[in-house]
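Task 17 of the worksheet. Students: predict the tertiary structure of the chain below and write it out as structure tokens. Keep your answer in the requested format; marks are given for formatting as well as content.
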Amino acid sequence: MTQKLVRHILDTIGELFPDAHCELRHSNPFELTIAVLLSAQCTDETVNKVTLDLFQKYKRPEDYLAVPLEELEQDIRRIGLFRNKASNIQKLCQLLLDKFDGEIPEKHEHLVELPGVGRKTANVVVSNAFGVPAIAVDTHVERVSKRLGLAGPDDSVLEVEKKLMKKVPRDEWTQTHHRLIFFGRYHCKAQNPQCQICPLLDNCREGKKRMKPSSTRKTITNK
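Model answer:
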């Protein structure tokens, strides 16, 4: 893929979603980390409903450790895998107090030490909380990148991230991450992508395949 085509894709998505941003509600790095941890295999919308009350009840790592695990589980029970996530939250909070003075560390290598925090979560935190350019590859970013040819169809999540980092200018990494998410969440959806009105249809092999059957049916009907 040429750099000119990459630029065209980035600019087109940018025009569609110029104000793309992190939709997880938070007011500090600690809340963001908890929210991203909760968002695994769960929608941001559901997470925001849960954290509306959660972040009123729990302000600091000490607060999460002051209640029985069962109580925290009930507080987040609407979230998928809530038992596992509740356990990770308490372990994360304990590690923050033991090793990082109760504060979310700014370095990526320290973030991934936290229970429940993988590479994607760490990328979201460093970019949104600390302003460090990063591309977090979630299901939307992975799907869109592969459909548009920014990554290979069989690439792993890490390979997708590396290819995007190579093709996208570093100062646009975080912005591109948000725009690819919005593009995948609201336009290039997993089940019903809006191929018929997509300005990038010519660059999407899957989109062209999806549109062919309807074109064929239309031709038959006209005959």
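Marker's comment: The CA atoms of residues 31 and 91 lie 15 Å apart. Residues 215-223 have pLDDT under 50 and may be disordered.
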